[in-house]
Amino acid sequence: MRADVAGRALTLALADTEPARERGLMEITDLGSLDGMLFRFDRPAFWTFWMKDTLIPLDIAFFASDGRFVSRTTMPPCRSNPCPTYGAAAPFLFAIEAPAGRLDFLGFGATLRVSLPASSPAVSP
């Protein structure tokens, strides 16, 4: 799917079902032509993420239901159980995961916004 973030078009895999969100980018080492993965939830909340079976470090950016940037963090691969969890500074509806550093050009800050098409076909990494 395509998403507009800070005026830049990103090509993202879509995780909008519980199984797809649970799987995320597990066992992925190369995203090919994708910039990352968009996680879309049914309602804003303090959702959390973990890095179980994820092989590469990821950045995650969280966005509110109106597209406003909420917060961001870098998540290293989990090497032992229990894996730590990562969440946002406020409730969010969308999150974008990408290989660590790949989205730095967006200049994360209070004015950053994400815009999504009304319906988006799923794309797999």
Query: Helix count?
Result: 1
Q: Rg, please? A: 13 Å
Q: How many structurally independent domains?
A: 1
Main CATH class:
Mainly Beta
| Low-pLDDT windows of residues | none
- Please summarize the sheet with the most strands: 7 strands, mixed
Q: What do you see in this structure?
A:
The protein has one helix and nine strands. It is mainly beta and 125 residues long. A seven-stranded mixed beta sheet has the order 6-5-8-3-2-1-9.
Summarize the SSE layout with pairings:
Elements: E1 2-5, E2 8-15, H1 18-23, E3 36-45, E4 48-50, E5 58-63, E6 69-75, E7 85-87, E8 92-99, E9 114-115
Parallel strand pairs: 2-3
Antiparallel strand pairs: 1-2, 1-9, 3-8, 4-7, 5-6, 5-8
How would you summarize what this structure contains?
The chain has 125 residues and is mostly beta strands. Helices cover 5% and strands 41% of the residues.
Give structural attributes.
single chain, 125 residues, mainly beta, Jelly Rolls, seven-stranded mixed beta sheet, two-stranded antiparallel sheet, 1 helix, 41% strand
